[in-house]
Design goal:
Length: 297
Amino acid sequence: MTTPLPRVAWIGLGIMGSPMSENLIKAGYRVTGHTLEQAKLDRLTAAGGTAAASVAEAVAQADVIVTMVPASPQVEAIAYGPEGILAHARPGALLIDMSSITPRTSVELAAAGAERGLRVLDAPVSGGEAGAVEATLSIMVGGEAADFEAAKPLFDALGTTVVRCGPHGSGQTVKAANQLIVAVNIQACAEAVVFLEKSGVDLGAALDVLNGGLAGSTVLTRKRDNFLTRDFAPGFRIDLHHKDLGIVTDAARTVGAALPLGAVVAQLVASLRAQGDGGLDHSALLRSVERLSGAQV
């Protein structure tokens, strides 16, 4: 007789959360979800999940609780307080926060969860909307080794690279480094695009050959069409990358690490956001380079 898969509560059904929760349903998990938008709840039920009217209702019977919300304030809002996760989750449940938040928030949540008899992991992801849809995410995890092993089958339904990086907060620290690398990479690609176009080169051909050599990257593979078509519909919004670069800048200052390139790109992202482009995909860093190069964007 096979052991039934754990019952999952999923809180946060946005660009990432919706396809990720659906991949768990496809893998055989019973998923009860809650979010603030009715259309997202309807999408979950259409995929075979169950909608809950509140966080408390969603988590009450769950063995595993997954949260995927934008930032630390949202994690704290759904975790704490009389209607929050900690007040209504069953003792022994596993709380997995897959949001991208500060390492400090993750450490504090783990401590508060332990006081309530909950096991907690921080498990942010990389791979964007496409990775969420395709279940090819990279998942970086912080927390106890035994809890990681318990969660591993669930992670394997969501991603292809799943690594425990250390104790609580480690997943968020690695995610911050990831966002630093991605932002600098997008900025370099954007500068190359403007340089190539101003030089009269066939941009599509140039990006193809560049991506076949040492300059190639997942960023260039994923964002090539965005650069070519100027389609900046959000897979990962500038607003969120702005938040993440704030996290890595603050964390680096705390440990005494210098981030000269990261600081410049953080300012360029902040500038783009100030010009009204915060809702666009982070590949819209191209618009910043175009403006600096004299284009009317």
